[in-house]
Each structure stands twice: as C-alpha cells, then as structure tokens.
Amino acid sequence: xxxxxxxxxxxxxxxxxxxxxxxxxxxxxxxxxxxxxxxxxxxxxxxxxxxxxxxxxxxxxxxxxxxxxxxxxxxxxxxxxxxxxxxxxxxxxxxxxxxxxxxxxxxxxxxxxxxxxxxxxxxxxxxxxxxxxxxxxxx
Amino acid sequence: xxxxxxxxxxxxxxxxxxxxxxxxxxxxxxxxxxxxxxxxxxxxxxxxxxxxxxxxxxxxxxxxxxxxxxxxxxxxxxxxxxxxxxxxxxxxxxxxxxxxxxxxxxxxxxxxxxxxxxxxxxxxxxxxxxxxxxxxxxxxxxxxxxxxxxxxxxxxxxxxxxxxxxxxxxxxxxxxxxxxxxxxxxxxxxxxxxxxxxxxxxxxxxxxxxxxxxxxxxxxxxxxxxxxxxxxxxxxxxxxxxxxxxxxxxxxxxxxxxxxxxxxxxxxxxxxxxxxxxxx
Lengths: 139, 280
Prior knowledge:
The structure holds 2 protein chains of 2 kinds.
Chain A: H1 10-17, H2 28-33, H3 35-43, H4 47-55, H5 57-61, H6 68-76, H7 79-84, H8 89-98, H9 103-108, H10 115-123
Helix pairs in contact in A: 3-8
Chain B: E1 3-10, H1 14-21, H2 31-47, E2 51-56, E3 71-74, E4 78-81, E5 94-95, H3 98-110, E6 116-118, E7 122-123, H4 125-135, E8 144-150, H5 160-175, E9 182-188, H6 205-216, H7 227-234, H8 242-249, E10 255-266, E11 269-278
Parallel strand pairs in B: 1-9, 2-8, 2-9, 3-6, 4-7
Antiparallel strand pairs in B: 1-11, 3-8, 4-5, 10-11
C-alpha cells in the first residue's frame, strides 16, 4: 500500500465542495439536516404509503418530523429548495416515481431549462464543464 | 484455486434496464449503446465466469438514510431485484456465492478492511443493469454474484486510493480460496453525470476518456484523483467511478485492454465500459 499522500484536512476538504456552481454535495451536514425529508421519501417505496400520500399529501407529511418550509417545498415539488434543506436526489427520486415522472424530466426541473430544452441539451452532448467547475476560479 | 481472470468497468444507468425490459435496445436512441456492448456480451458467453464480484452502489433501495456502510459485502445465498418505485425489474433473482463471499469478507477484515456483512437484501439497478448489459435476458443469470456495495452518496465517500487497495486485497483473498473458480470483478457506475441542481446535465467526454486511458496504463496514478476533481469535472454523480478502481486494483500492475466503448448520452449520463485482463 502507498502512503505517499498527505492526510487530507477535513475542513479544507469540505470547504472546496461549496465552490462548485449549481451543486449541493451531499455532505454529512446535509445528510443530518435532511434526514427526515429523505426518510419520508424512502417511505414512498411502499405502495400503500404511496396511495396514502397521493390521497392527502398534507396529512401524510404531517406524520413526519419535517419543517413547514420543507413540507411546502415537497408539496410544490421544489427540488432545489429540498436539496438546500438536505434532500438527496436518490431519495427524492421516490417522489419522482410516485408522480410517474421520468427521472431526467424531474432532474430538468432543477435547471433553468424546460424539459424539451434539457433533453435536447443532453442529445447535443450535455452541459459543458467549461465555466462550470469553480465559482471562485470561474473556469 | 480461484483466480481473477478479467475486470469490467461499466455504467449502470437505470434507463438501460428499462430499454432491455421493454425491448427498445435496437431503436435509434439505444441502438448505438447496445451495439457498443455486443463484443463484450459475446466475450462473456465464451469466458463463462463462475462468479462475478460486482462492485456497485445502492441508490436508496436496500439502505435508507439510517445506516450507511462504506464497504458492504453480500454473503447471502440469493438476492431479489428491488422495487425502486416502478415495481421490481422482470429479471431473474441473483444467486450469491456465500462460501466465496464469506471467505473474502474474513480475509478483508484480517487485512484491516472493516467490512459490513449483509445476509439479506434486495439489489437495485446498480447491480442488475450491468448483468443485463453483459448477459442479455437469460432465464437464469449464467454465474453467481458476490455483491459489493460502496457508499458513493454521503460524503466523505471512500478515496480512490482506498478503493484501489481494497481491490488488491480482494485479489489476494480470491487467490487463497481453495475451489477452482473463474472469477471476474466488475466496477460499475459513472461515467460523468450530474442529477441535481442547476448544473444538472453536465457531461465531460474528454475527462471520461482520460480516465479510461488511465485505467489501461501500467501505473496506478488514477488512484490519486481527489474527490473534488471528480465533482468539478464529472458532475456530482460522476464520483461513482471510484468503484471502477476497486476492479482495476484487483487486476495487478499491468493490464491488457480487450474492449472499450463510450457514448453520449443515455438519459442524464455518459455511458462507458472497458474490459481488461491482468497482464503481469
């Protein structure tokens, strides 16, 4: 085994994550903050829970230890706000499938594009990394 | 004696599973992707591995937000395809190789890799899509599978360096298993993709191909790519590529490339796969 790599400083390691444009890296801090949002979403894996949620979304949400802000974001399917509140896309995707929405279409709602525009961007080779790597560096 | 005869790196995009299950693999959208896997499917038919050690990540299917194992090995007898919100994929159950899996788990722990051991779980698209890409639609999967699940979702995820070293330790564990077995190791996930936030849809053809070049090289530089580089260059979900390093680490210093394919896009993702053979 090689040990030539210097130990990574955890504070520097985490600080760099905040320098990526339009991205919420799923850090431990976000995982803590969004724990019940993600567990709520996970509960939608069971069809009986999906049915109960669809019948009365608000009542179902009120069973969970989730902030009013997060409940409003879930009701509005405001995925960028949910990411800010510690939601993770693999958990939130249970809500995509509950809504019967294809994954890519749901993802497109987090961008400034419509679904047809987003789909065309992907067919044209995707979003370029140019200018999208670093906020501070602008590269 | 068991031996690792080859390694495969491959994307595991769920939409590829949908294409197989709904018979769309020859249409204009999916045709070029499946054509890229044709050689590999034919090669697998000839190679007939007894066991595949299949490195993948669970996508909030078997594990929820509660328990987050960094490295977990499936030591069970069989695994069912998970219901990911659309009903389980119509694919065969996955048969484990409990003897080999327990042998690897014990060997790894003695080598200071503190593995989580799983006896029962369902396996999601991360594991079943690569099986479909390599084996098509058989009645029964043609080999046994040792699932190895890696946390690549909650940070910090394991470093590339640690993944490579785990691969080396897996190779030693396989070599000390007394039964004569043809074992392959697959690293899955990637390549560049971002599924969240305003930057969603990022793809990086140039970086992905450099990564494939580095996997083919006779050195281990690829293990030292830091997480921040994957995040900046390949999107927030491109980090799955660290799982390919477990495969590469298990093949030894020199490898021979047998096949390589790259295609953009599949859904939100760049699709790549590579087939390597140890050449030491």
